[in-house]
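Weekly puzzle thread! Below is a chain. First person to post its structure in token form gets bragging rights.
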Amino acid sequence: MTTPLNLPARQAHLWLVGAGPGDPELLTLKGARALEQAELVLYDSLVHQDVLALAPSHAVKVCVGKRAGQTSTPQALIHDWIEKGARQGLRIVRLKGGDPMVFGRAGEELSFADKLGLPWTYVPGISSGTSLAGLSGIPLTLRGVASSAWLGTATGQDGRLTDDLVQALRTSSTLVVFMGRRRLREIAQHLLHLDKGNLPVAVVSEGSLPQHHTVVRTARQWAVSSDLDQLADPALLVIGEVVHHRLQTHATPLRSIAPTFSHEYQVPHLPQAGKPHVQRLRRV
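Winning reply:
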């Protein structure tokens, strides 16, 4: 049983921060500010090193990652680290890929903090489930094609395809499947049984990074594919007619955009303001 903390004079705090889908530039400003004041950072293995570099040099950084098919950090050990930092009165950042509230066990860790009496702040991140399809040129919804999107995982606690996924395969919604690469053939076979052999399925790996890779085939092709083990993990599956409408993407790093001009412009004043407000556009 968890014992509530006798918090030190300098009260500890836990920030649960979403690091986004991989690209360090997709971290939120609030997440960056939390990292800048961290004293203990408990981070997942998919967090980009440039994000970790935002933490102070004196901060203790501990990898507590969980990866499919690999040795993972037990949840109990993560709780132990949180409790250890809290009892020392530290500013703790629990840094997770994507958004912690989407398949990130956020509820378990925040519930544990509550039992300790440890105050916490949730900082949302950009979820891979809602961003990687778009970064691959695939709209999750499209007028006349798909009016909804379903986010889910492939495997239930019993080791079988989840009932939710099996039911969702019957709909016209776009399906975004986390941790589904190892179950891709089984998913494709379900689609064949539903007479959806021509439905396209995209497999997106490292979708926000320069080395992103997207493979698109029909369910019929995936069902007999012999190269599934060559697909990189972690991967996201995007299933639905919207994949047929995939657009050509053109990535331009923001750091390459450097205007050489400077310009002043007036903003009409608000009723309570005494004079127009002048702002200056400056070189980025």
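Puzzle host: Confirmed. Bonus trivia for everyone else. The domain at 129-245 is CATH 3.30.950.10 (Methyltransferase, Cobalt-precorrin-4 Transmethylase; Domain 2).
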